[in-house]
Amino acid sequence: MERLQKVMAEAGVASRRASEKLIASGHVKVNGHVVTEMGVKVSAHDQVAVDDVPISREAHVYYLLNKPRSVITSAHDDKGRRTVVDILHDGGVDERIYPVGRLDYDTTGILLLTNDGELANRLMHPKFEVDKEYIAKVKGIIKNDDLRQLRLGVMVDGRKTKKAKTKLLEVDRDHQTSRVRLTIHEGHYHQVKRMFKVIGHPVIKLHRESYGPLSLQGLQSGEFRELREEEVKLLKKI
């Protein structure tokens, strides 16, 4: 027996907190009866529906995608643009999956997709501090003082970012650009781009190289693969 909100989260309906709100507002039925109180537990034999749509308790699946540019990090897009989920579905993945976190429309790189809502919510929670490594091509010649600012944290919207790891990879004096490796474990809206903008070096291109213990080794842009069992275990240990 498991708590109703946990079952909903694991089925990919919403986070536990959002599932609790759905329950409290009368959107959830168990075996045909509306449930509004917290603490209800259900078994595998109970039928759970949200807005009269039964939730599916599929086996958990985990995929790693090398996201290309000009693709939306979403399960669907109202404007009809191609999404990361479209890529996997076109590649033969039948399960209902969704991305863990977001990459901007023009940002490329590593992205995890799953139907394991519980793990997804944990990975995205700031307290678990999952390292995310980016390669950024930026305007201007980065100096040591610029990198030091990033390492110590910069002010973005009145909030100081947490300490980051940095490494200068390359400078192109002819084109006045630099390439920097930046490792952070936060994931706020446009965070990497905004950090570089604060220090006066706007991002030209951005690529996420790694996510926690996962890397893009062997994956070309637009390709994906299923995670190995040991990789899933590593994620769950974070």
TrEMBL record:
EC number per UniProt: 5.4.99.-
Naming one, the record's GO cellular component terms include: cytosol
Annotated CDD domains: PseudoU_synth_RsuA_like, S4
> Which SMART domains has this protein been placed in?
S4 (SM00363)
Q: Which residues cross the membrane?
A: none
Q: Ranges for the RNA-binding S4 domain? A: 2-60
Q: Which InterPro entries match?
A: PsdUridine_s_RsuA/RluB/E/F_cat, PsdUridine_synth_cat_dom_sf, PsdUridine_synth_RsuA/RluA, PsdUridine_synth_RsuA/RluB/E/F, PsdUridine_synth_RsuA/RluB_CS, RsuA_PseudoU_synthase, S4_RNA-bd, S4_RNA-bd_sf
Which top EC class applies here?
isomerase
- Per UniProt, what is one GO molecular function of this protein? RNA binding
Give the domain of life. Answer: Bacteria
GO biological process per UniProt: enzyme-directed rRNA pseudouridine synthesis
Q: Which UniProt keywords apply?
A: Isomerase, RNA-binding
Say which family it is in.
Belongs to the pseudouridine synthase RsuA family.
**Annotated protein name in UniProt:** Pseudouridine synthase
